[in-house]
Design goal:
Elements (H helix, E strand, L loop, with lengths): L7 H13 L2 E2 H12 L3 H13 L3 E4 L2 E4 L3 H17 L3 H9 L6 H13 L2
């Protein structure tokens, strides 16, 4: 999977799958009709597109997940930092905190992550 971005509608669609997978294509069609107002063909088209990108697969009428939500967003974050900050996590944090102060709780959480990854 090369592209780690989803449009707003693709994200809603992916969330339906991540929340309910594995699910049948018929169940996915019903959920997309109810939650997104989509027709069967739209559901199949978007499923095919995201399957080609390696996120999901239609295995004989059952939609399965190849990349979890957490893994997808981890890869998306890595890609953004690599592209925008030349891979520098400190550069990202400096930019992020230049306009927004971190709470004590956020600082403690970040410190915990640092300590766990030493």
């Amino acid at each position: 999977m090369e592209e780690y971005t989803l449009g707003a509608i693709e994200s809603r669609f992916a969330d339906i799958i991540w929340t309910h997978a594995p699910l049948t294509t018929n169940e996915l069609i019903k959920r997309c009709e109810a939650e997104l107002g989509w027709k069967r063909t739209t559901t199949y088209t978007v499923l095919k597109k995201l399957s080609e990108r390696g996120l999901f697969e239609n295995q004989n009428g059952t939609v399965v997940v190849h990349i979890t939500r957490e893994e997808f967003y981890a890869r998306q974050s890595e890609s953004y930092i690599n592209h925008s900050f030349h891979g520098s996590l400190p550069g990202f944090l400096t930019a992020f905190t230049s306009r927004r102060k971190l709470s004590d709780e956020e600082i403690q959480e970040i410190q915990k992550i640092i300590d766990q990854n030493r």
